[in-house]
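User: My instructor asked us to take a sequence, write out its structure as tokens, and then describe one feature of it. I'm not sure where to start. Here is the sequence I was given:
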Amino acid sequence: MISLARHLDPETGDLVFNDATGSWLESPSPAMEVVALVLRTPRGSCPLDPTLGVEWDKVDKILPNATATCRAVILEGLQGLVEDGTIADLSITVDQPSVRALTYVVAFTDPANPGAGVQTVPGQV
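Assistant: Let's start with the prediction itself. The structure tokens for your sequence are:
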């Protein structure tokens, strides 16, 4: 389980630096940062852990099963975090507002931080 993590900008994935204190910002939810990292990483792109990430290339937005495929690849990418106890109560919702877009919301709880309640990470493909 993760007890401390640096805060990542939710849009860019960059580490956030606090100019006033001269240090990196601490994340309010380390599990959130790990989930966001997995969702941002194409599977196979990390030389140290080729299993890290999501196989986004399997998702073809124009196929009728695009939402189911998207949900499946997200679940596969996050399954290790569920198995090792980093996150619990994983829920994935995928919608297709248009033929060229898929949106998803990953919801979970952090067993190491039960007071945080359900946390969500939205995204789009």
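For the description part of your assignment, you could build on this observation: The mean pLDDT is 89. Try explaining in your own words what that tells you about the chain.
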